[in-house]
Design brief:
With 64 residues, the chain is mainly alpha-helical. It contains one helix and no strands. It is rod-shaped. Keywords: Membrane, Transmembrane, Transmembrane helix.
């Protein structure tokens, strides 16, 4: 009786572990997408800051 019940519960446990692994991989991909988005935004902000500072320096150079 005990062997039958454990074999009956085994597919359920294997499905649970499969769902947990899928859930973890989705979480990892969401974290990776979020980190890539933040990295892209940081590069974009730094690039805009460099562009603005370059324009300001060029204007100061022409004034002098």
């Amino acid at each position: 009786m005990l062997i039958e019940s454990s074999s009956f519960l085994d597919p359920i446990n294997s499905q649970r572990t499969l769902l947990r692994s899928i859930d973890r991989s989705i979480d990892r991909s969401i974290d990776l997408n979020l980190s890539m988005k933040l990295l892209f935004e940081l590069i974009l902000i730094l690039g805009l800051f460099g562009l603005i500072s370059g324009i300001v320096r060029r204007q100061d150079y022409y004034k002098a």
